[in-house]
Model the fold of this input.
Amino acid sequence: MKNFNLKSALTILFVVTALISCSTDKDDDESTTPEFTVKSALVTEVKGPETGKVNEELSYDVTYIVESACAEFGEISDVTIGTEKGLQVEAKYPSGACTLQVPDPQKTIYKFKSATKGTFDIKFKKSETEFVTAKVIIE
Done:
């Protein structure tokens, strides 16, 4: 009788251990989610209106260069070069190898809106030391 209880207990312990170890395996869906690296992209051109009105949203076409054709637009963030503040485009690069050919310049839209009148400089990072600037007068 004791031998039977010991065998039953060991069998149950083995089954429980096997079930627990299998439940921690990752799903295949999780392994296909790509990881990204974020890098700043250098802007070559900013096009948009030169005048606008208070509280009017203006759209600017921002052209930028990426390192590989697999890059995707990430976001627009603040940047400082020396004492000047401006904006930069951030691109997301997949961590895997990129099999696409040479990248073409990419474009995104930047929205600008001012609650006050005045002349504003919209600056985007062109290189490590300079900005490309678009001026807008808000009336």
Remarks:
- The longest strand covers residues 36-47.
- The radius of gyration is 28 Å.
